[in-house]
Amino acid sequence: MARKSKKKDEGGKDGKGGKAPKRAGRAGPPAPDAPLRPLLRVPAGERIDLGAFDPGATPGGPSGKAAGLAATAQLAGPLASLQERLYAASTAGDRRRLLLVLQGTDTSGKGGTVKHVTCLFNPAGCRIRAFKAPTPEEQGHPFLWRIKQALPQPGEIGIFDRSHYEDVLIARVRELVSRSELNRRYAQINRFEESLAADGVTVVKVLLHISYEEQRERLLKRLDNPHKHWKFSPADIDERDLWPEYQHAYELALERCSGDAAPWYVVPADRKWYRNWAVSKLLLEHLEEMGPRYPEADFDVEACRARLLET
Questions:
Q1: What single DSSP character describes residue 53?
Q2: Which of 34, 107, 223, 290 is most buried per CB count within 10 Å?
């Protein structure tokens, strides 16, 4: 992926994404089985400038909303089949499972993506967890403790709405810990994710990337709809004032924690239809690479058939 360098503007409009140069990405109809991962993956060790990524782009995606909805619907069958095979394999001792980590600013669509993904799978094989501010009990443990309690079991698909990355995002922006502690946390996260990969967990980390202007529109829609007031808080405006700081914190997390064991993917999320298609396609590609198989019967199939026919 090509990158553009940009001087940080911690207080001006450029720092809020309003006038920053954009990486357009590839748009238009993809080849039939063109992989999406190379287009969205964050290379390990490179400096990241989120201002160079266009949140409204549709890299590798269908030609428009109607085509995108149709393409997403076509992914449902293959995804459900792969999930069933993954779960079935676990009954024969296969320890593999998949964990989808969703991060993004307020209104980036984490909850909507969770709702969409769960519609594609059998919910009995999913383990979903939304991480909010730590409880007093959680604060009494190391920051990864609550994450470990929520990991998917063998054969399951886990979905995190926010995650352990909150402890290097909000912790940095709000200066809740020292910079030396932040550096230790990046290293701890890398070791933790490497240990997950070694234990059979395929980690798919997705940053839902929206623009400053799109966030404003989504917040206004919540204010204009009484049925959405429960999703709004005046604190959302306070957090919005820290947009440049959060963008910088995300850039550092992407740079410091995108290794081979658990790379990051930046999904442009201004267009909800593309967001849903892209996350579904990423899941499909990872599950296909895992290649789960139905276990072979550990009993005499023909003998059992004969017995049933006699009853």
A1: S
A2: 107
* Two tokens, residue 83: 């999930």
- Give CA angle at 290 (192, 157), nearest 5°: 60
Give the pLDDT score at 10: 34
Contacts of 301 (CB under 8 A, 6+ apart): none
Structure tokens at 262: 């658990």
Q: How far apart are CA 131 and CA 134, in angstroms?
A: 8
Percent of the chain with pLDDT over 90: 86
Rounded CA separation 56/273 (Å)? 11
Alpha carbon separation from 259 to 46, 225, 308 (Å, rounded): 11, 42, 53
Phi, psi of 304 (to 5 degrees): -65, -40
Q: How far is CA 257 from the centre of its chain?
A: 14
Residues recorded for the chain: 311
Among residues 175, 173, 176, 199, which one has the least CA distance to residue 261? Answer: 199
204 vs 266: CA distance, rounded Å: 11
109 closest CA partner among 49, 164, 161: 161
The predicted-structure confidence for 98-132, as pLDDT tens digits, reads as follows 999 999 999 999 999 999 999 999 999 999 999 99
Model pTM greater than 0.70? yes
Sheet holding 201-209, edge to edge: 126-130, 157-161, 97-103, 201-209, 264-268
Give per-residue pLDDT as tens, 147-177: 999 999 999 999 999 999 999 999 999 999 9
Q: Which residues of 160-180 are buried (b: 16+ CB within 10 A; e: fewer)?
A: bbbbbbbbbbbbbbeeeeeee
Q: Which of 197, 198, 173, 172 is nearest to 185 (CA)?
A: 172
